Amino acid sequence: MVTPVRVVIALCLVAPFVAMLWVSSYAKADPAFIGIPFFYWYQMLWVLISTVLTMIAYQLWQRDQRGRKAAKALQEGASR
After folding, report:
1. What's the pLDDT at 6?
2. What are the DSSP calls for 10-61, one per residue?
3. What is the pLDDT of residues 10-55, one digit of tens each?
4. How far is CA 38 from CA 28, 66, 67, in A?
5. What is the reported pTM?
6. Are 10 and 61 in contact (CB under 8 A)?
7. Cβ atoms 1, 67 nearer than 8 A
8. DSSP, res 80
9. Which residues pair with 43 in a beta bridge?
10. Left (φ > 0), alpha (ψ -120 to 50) or beta: where does 79 sit?
11. 80 pLDDT band (50/70/90 cuts)?
């Protein structure tokens, strides 16, 4: 079942792949950051961004699963 929360989870997990596969967007040397060419520091920045997005996706997934279990328990209790 597709829910808004699951769409956000999917976007969080897909965004790093799209960013890294779109090479032409970062295949350049400028702007440099503390002497490191853009090509390298952009990819390293995405390591951190990917970590944060994965943590957000995990937390949303856990919250979604807890909500589903609670709804299922209520539904089973009401049907008895």
Report:
1. 93
2. HHHHHHHHHHHH-GGGT-S--S-BTTB-HHHHHHHHHHHHHHHHHHHHHHHH
3. 999 999 999 999 988 888 888 988 999 999 999 999 999 999 999 9
4. 6, 42, 42
5. 0.82
6. no
7. no
8. -
9. none
10. alpha
11. low
Residue 74 has pLDDT above 90, yes or no: no
CA–CA separation, 44 vs 21, rounded Å? 14
∠ CA 39-42-43 to the nearest 5 degrees? 85
Where are the domains positioned within the chain? 1-55
Tokens, residue 3 = 């829910």
Cα torsion 21, 26, 28, 29: sign: negative
Beta bridge partners of 59: none
C-alpha to C-alpha distance for 3 and 61, rounded to whole angstroms? 11
